[in-house]
From TrEMBL:
Belongs to the zinc-containing alcohol dehydrogenase family. Quinone oxidoreductase subfamily. It comes from Capsella rubella. InterPro entries: ADH-like_N (IPR013154), AOR-like (IPR044626), ER (IPR020843), GroES-like_sf (IPR011032), NAD(P)-bd_dom_sf (IPR036291), Quin_OxRdtase/zeta-crystal_CS (IPR002364). GO terms for molecular function: oxidoreductase activity, acting on the CH-CH group of donors, NAD or NADP as acceptor; zinc ion binding. This is Enoyl reductase (ER) domain-containing protein. It comes from the Eukaryota. Keywords: NAD, Oxidoreductase. Residues 88-383 form the Enoyl reductase (ER) domain. It holds the Pfam family ADH_zinc_N_2.
Amino acid sequence: MNTALATTTATTTPVLRRATSLHQHSSLTLKSPVIRLNGVRFGSGLQTVSKKFLKISASSQSTSAAVNVAADASIPKEMKAWVYGEYGGVEVMKLESNITVPEINEDQVLIKVVAAGLNPVDAKRRQGKFKATDSPLPTVPGYDVAGVVVKVGSAVKDFKVGDEVYANVSEKALEGPKQFGSLAEYTAVEEKLLGLKPKNIDFVQAAGLPLAMETADEGLVRTEFSAGKSILVLNGAGGVGSLVIQLAKHVYGASKVAATASTGKLELVKSLGADLAIDYTKENIEDLPDKYDVVFDAIGMCDKAVKVIKEGGKVVALTGAVTPPGFRFVVTSNGEVLKKLNPYIESGKVKPVVDPKGPFPFSRVAEAFTYLETNHATGKVVVYPIS
């Protein structure tokens, strides 16, 4: 395990110490009443970005509202954010209201977060399942963000204040992911990870796309998927699976897409582009009459998946034990992927799928994670509004 920079007790609870200098941040500190997280540069005195209000429309299946983002004389010095200082269940997360707004590096932008998407990797990280490569505690969780740029670094070329953007904020999901993530009112993100939000979708929908869409696309690339090939998607109604179906069919030109889902979600996977919807509660994939060029296992059944591929076929396994010739990869966040796929989203060929139980308000993030961890979500679980 990496040596944690935070001073901790024997139970790994962070020790709060009064700050003597804004730039001395080797531990979680309180500079009454400001909290600073180690490994992330924080400070006051952020530059003026505008003297107007940016109006953002955000809506979903169950919500429609206008979000006014004040980008006036000063960005707030403090903000609300979810934080955990030890690994564990949802109970270790606390909503704090005195977290310092992060400063940005020259290659970053500061985003006023409008919505944030949750991912299974968030929960696994919080549970300590990859402590050895995690960033030091304490952590503000969250990978997926959709929001508005309120400040840009000096080296940023392609984004400006007022741009509506979305991103997976951590370039490597498991190797030193950002200590300061998207479950906060503001977050700092490298330009190379950003994409402009597609014009035809709202912030809630956009927040559910980056990590899952990048995972779906990278998996297809790694299996050398191409036009005319067939694919079986396990857990086709999930966050990643729902996007694998769409990308395979509408972007890569699959000859046949089959997908597993529960009885009540079969019509959904068909609507996304599946030629064959398989009810996993009634059918065993090992008994399927056809074999596939690729199986994309997003549920953890690699041992069965390898039995339904053609000779020379490939299996990508996102979770569970890997059975050869199956393989696993860890997604790399890449704004170029978002740029590549934006036209397919704006044309309606690729559609975000947001779980109908959401979006969950910012105060109910723990409840949102509890639901996500049942593994029964449809599409993506999204948090909105962030305030």
